[in-house]
Design a protein that fits this description.
66% helix
Length: 119
């Protein structure tokens, strides 16, 4: 059973994902991409905080964390493309399932940013 079944769980996972990506790019020596990931994390934290009272408790189905696991041990160019593709796929998959428009827009924006970095 997936733990990505509520608005809060998805936003928490997005925050954790961007935290991992920040650390990943720091390890890879790319301060710019690390800073971009940290900005996305901060934005997701703000969105979650500001919209927590608007959340409808509708269950979300069809998402599994295992599908979005990052290989943060490979900092090669190919490894970086793989990390970006997984992140883009996560945001592409979850955005339509969120019933809070501001959160949807933030997730869609992150999908585009990661998609652009994956080539």
């Amino acid at each position: 059973m997936s733990s990505l079944n509520t608005f809060g769980a998805i936003m928490t996972y997005a925050i954790e994902l961007e935290t991992q990506i920040t650390a990943y790019y720091k390890e890879a020596g790319d301060a710019g991409r690390a800073a971009d990931a940290d900005k996305r994390r901060q934005n997701f934290e703000r969105v979650r905080r500001e919209n927590v009272t608007e959340i409808k408790l509708e269950p979300i189905e069809g998402l599994d964390e295992a599908d979005y696991a990052l290989n943060t041990g490979d900092t090669s160019p190919a490894g970086q493309v793989a990390v970006e593709r997984i992140a883009a796929q996560f945001y592409t998959d979850v955005a339509p399932k969120i019933n809070v428009r501001e959160a949807q827009r933030a997730l869609e924006k992150a999908a585009k940013q990661h998609g652009a970095l994956s080539g």
